[in-house]
Amino acid sequence: MTERKPFRTRIKVRHYELDTLGHLNHAVYHSYGEVSRLELLEKAGALKGLPGLASVLLETHVVFRRELRAGDEVDVTCDVKFGSGKTFSMDSHIYKLDGTLAAEITCTMGLMDLERRKLVADPRGHFAEAGADLKLLSTAE
Length: 141
Fold this sequence. Notes:
The protein is α+β, with helices and mostly antiparallel strands. The chain has helices at about 25-45, 125-130, 135, and strands at about 5-10, 55-65, 75-80, 85-95, 100-115, 120. It is built from 3 helices and 6 strands, in the order βαβββββαα. Strands 1, 2, 3, 4, 5 and 6 form a 6-stranded antiparallel beta sheet that branches. The model has no long low-confidence stretch (mean pLDDT about 95).
């Protein structure tokens, strides 16, 4: 049995995303993680069928490993890990095309009831009920 690999999104570093040192601005790493998270949720069908609920970012952390410069292309992975509570993680790795790890992003997420403004229990169950492809969302069952 082959191991499923995390979802990947390819992004090209643009000149206007650089800082004064000539490498990717620290805040843009967060944006790249967000692009990958949203692409994964969309592809898995997790953005539909959740009336009154929305995924929310509760915490994010980036570890910078290697600098990125204009013109670099990167693959940004994303993988979901569900636990037993109200939160779940959506973690990303940013890789240069030669396989060099440029950054690690960890995010704590939740599903919020938009009317009550409270997190709901069992986000995995809500995604499943909405018809999301849980195998695409997560390498862990």
